[in-house]
Amino acid sequence: MRDEIFSQRNDLVDFTFDAQVADVFDDMVRRSVPGYQSMIEMIGLCVKTYGQNNTNYYDLGASTGATSLALGINNPHANNQIIAVDNSPSMAEKCKHNLDEKLDNAKIICADIGAIELDNASIVVLNLTLQFIAPEERQSLINKIYQGLNKGGALIVSEKIHFNNKSKQQLMTDLHLDFKRANGYSELEIAAKRQSIENVLITDDKDTHFQRFSKAGFDISTCHFQCLNFASFLAVK
Length: 237
Ligand SMILES: C[S@@+](CC[C@H](N)C(=O)[O-])C[C@H]1O[C@@H](n2cnc3c(N)ncnc32)[C@H](O)[C@@H]1O
Description:
This protein is of the alpha/beta class.
């Protein structure tokens, strides 16, 4: 379904992942996040390299299940369970609907990712989710993920990022706006969404991500993909 939420909304409240957003999410994310499809394809590559037999793969903030699907269909390993977690009941319902018919090893949990236990994990993905977690809770979440990962396992984090250099920040913001315009969003929709999401989606710069991975204990972390102001990071235990 096409995302026209902000062409109709004039009651500007903070953005939430409610039923209306869940209905249009697949269209919204593709028209708003530059490189989204490649981001998902990279997750498929990572599961081949870092997945391990007899382990769990966690998709935290799964939304409609695109990441879980990439983990499932690209998985060459044996006896894995995919655990997709989202605290939005509408998203969890859509995720279940999308995955049930395509994967036989996926479990969908409607819960806060801060409250779940992770164990025997070889892959954990936070694809565009960490940015919605309160900044003061991010380090403890990454620490918990590190503890739940097996040696040799990987965490993949994709985020909108900001740049401390003002000119670079402006350049990337302008290109991102052009990306949205090119994908059919009007000036009104772009402005309304920005106002609705600005208190909810809080970006970090790249260094903050690297410092957080290192503080949690990850030996290696790198930015393996970037398209404009969206980046994916790979951290290996
Ligand atoms: C931008 S979407 C993620 C997109 C998805 N990972 C993908 O690859 O298409 C962010 C998701 O995180 C979920 N979320 C945000 N905070 C959460 C939390 N504390 N616990 C669980 N899910 C959360 C939202 O409900 C939403 O579905």
